[in-house]
Amino acid sequence: MRTYKYGFLLTAIQDLVTSLCTLALIPRVISRNSYLIFIATGYLSDFPYGQILLGTVFVMVCLSLLIITNNFIYRYIQVCQMRYSYIYARKKSIIIICVANMAFLLNCGIVLVVCAWPSVHFRQQLYKERISVDATALEQKSFMGFSMEHSVNNLTIFLMIDGLLMMVMFTMIGSYSAFRIRSTLKERSVSDKTINMHKKMFHTLLLQSD
Fold first, then answer.
1. Which of 50, 48, 49 is nearest to 39 (CA)?
2. Which of 20, 48, 50, 77 has the most crowded Cβ, counting Cβ within 10 A?
């Protein structure tokens, strides 16, 4: 149960960091025929501070997906596979779980840097087009995005497929866990108090995934 509480604490921290970064950046989405960018227009939009905060927001979004998936797996084991509940009580298992999560975040970081971090040529393309941005010049703004002209190569295609597969995998894990938890709660003959407690936890998970 302590592990689950840490998950909620991490969720609260992630939500707070994401909200603060968003307020500081006020990001806008600009789409053209050959590119899509997220550009910072807020108080901390200037380079390099805005660039760091944009990267932080991206990592926080990935972390949110990771937290939700971990929570679904935890509840699935606690409700449907009690014989494996020892996993969250062993130090070795916790270390393995942490390493796997860190590997996922590292993967997200690589995708961010390789696919979304603007290159010099990408920046020059935007400077020439003179996108209308309030206040200061575009050269001072921080942005991330993807250009069909300057961002497409074998490595970025591979990483985009990798990211898509991870999204599909996490979606399948969450959907399967939710289905099995719901089915198990209906089938088990346990006390009403226990059922209500599990249902509340299940509904909380569903709210987190929205």
1. 50
2. 50
